[in-house]
Write a structure and sequence with these properties.
By secondary structure, this protein is an alpha/beta fold. The chain has 2 domains: 139 residues, Tetratricopeptide repeat domain (Serine Threonine Protein Phosphatase 5, Tetratricopeptide repeat), CATH 1.25.40; 146 residues, Glutaredoxin, CATH 3.40.30. The protein contains 11 helices and 8 strands. The strands form 2 sheets. Strands 1-6-3-2-7-8 form a 6-stranded mixed β-sheet, sandwiched between helices. Strand 4 and strand 5 form a beta hairpin. Helix 1 packs antiparallel against helix 2, helix 3 runs antiparallel to helix 4 and helix 5 packs parallel to helix 7. The longest helix has 23 residues.
Length: 325
């Protein structure tokens, strides 16, 4: 899934290999790990080069783990943890990096290990463990502005993830609706009796725009069967329309932009503008698009974040539409 906004790297989300690594005195495995580092530093310019580099990185990292992973300790444990992450064994990377942080209190790469651990936990969508890791290790980096900034960002991210997960099986929270574009929508609660798909989006978010045709298609195919698609956004003071970013917008100007955006994107479902931060505070929305599927009883049944393949979500929509009240 592609979400907006997120810091991305082409090999692991939010995980960048530190330059100039010196892991231990063993020249042999230090040299082998330098080869992994060289691949990780590449900046592929085409999708084909990206795919090739990703495959090469995974293979090199897996070979490193196979050769040096057994009984790793000390600084080598850090290297093995990163290599496991690069190879695709994110769970193994988490285990090794945690062990490094727990057993090497004076480790040379504790900062890099901590940040890599948070990145892997985010990629694995294990926010509870991410919050626990911050509680366990962040104190050791107090005063480090770089780490403190990243930790603050991760606290918001993990907290939002936990909030979204906690909504599953619970009544969908109401929203303070300021404006409605399209068919009249009085409240989320008033939509009980229909299956509702909420799409938290912004005009300036490319993954959001990429998701709109699928949403319009679902409204076209499933609307008569009982599906309501509802776009949800807020006033940002800026927006996107017809290939251009418009800044310093008044609320009147931004509302007009939304009307034109809705027309230009052929949005066939209503869009509501809510009070500031309603999505984040009530639904745990941070990355967008954020899709929340609500059953006929008003209960949140599934959550997805990002653009991409929504096949599983579409399957659940069909199942909910088939359910009897």
């Amino acid at each position: 899934m592609i979400r907006c906004p997120r810091r991305l790297r082409w090999f692991i989300p939010a995980l960048a290999l530190p330059a100039g690594i010196v892991i231990a005195d063993d020249a042999a495995w230090r040299a082998d790990f330098a080869k992994v580092e060289t691949i990780g530093k590449r900046d592929p310019e085409t999708p084909e080069a990206l795919a090739a580099a990703r495959g090469e990185l995974r293979a090199a990292a897996a070979a490193f783990v196979l050769k040096y992973g057994e009984d790793a300790e000390g600084e080598r444990l850090y290297a093995v943890g990163l290599a496991r992450g690069y190879s695709g064994d994110h769970a193994g990377g988490v285990k090794a990096l945690r062990l490094y942080l727990e057993t090497v209190p004076e480790g040379e790469r504790r900062k890099e290990a901590f940040l890599a651990l948070l990145a892997l936990l985010e990629g694995l969508e294990r926010p509870e463990e991410g919050l626990e890791a911050i509680e366990s290790f962040a104190e050791g980096f107090k005063g480090n502005a770089e780490v403190e900034e990243i930790v603050a960002d991760q606290l918001r991210s993990f907290g939002s993830d936990v909030k979204r997960k906690s909504l599953i099986g619970q009544a969908a929270p109401g929203l303070e609706i300021l404006e409605v574009l399209g068919d009249g929508v009085k409240s989320i609660e008033a939509l009980k009796g229909r299956v509702v798909l909420l799409d938290f989006f912004a005009t300036w978010c490319l993954p959001c725009r990429q998701t709109i045709p699928w949403l319009a298609g679902m409204r076209e195919k499933r609307g008569e069967a009982g599906l309501t698609v509802l776009g949800v956004t807020e006033y940002y003071g800026y927006g996107w329309l017809d290939g251009e970013t418009r800044e310093n917008l008044s609320k009147t100007q931004e509302l007009d932009l939304h009307r034109k955006f809705r027309e230009s994107m052929k949005i066939n479902y209503p869009v509501i503008l809510t009070a500031d931060k309603e999505g984040g505070e009530k639904y745990g929305v941070l990355g967008i698009p954020g899709l929340f599927l609500i059953d006929r009883k008003g209960v949140v049944r599934k959550v997805e974040v990002g653009a991409g393949d929504h096949g599983e979500l579409e399957k659940v929509i069909g199942e909910l539409l088939a359910e009897k009240d």
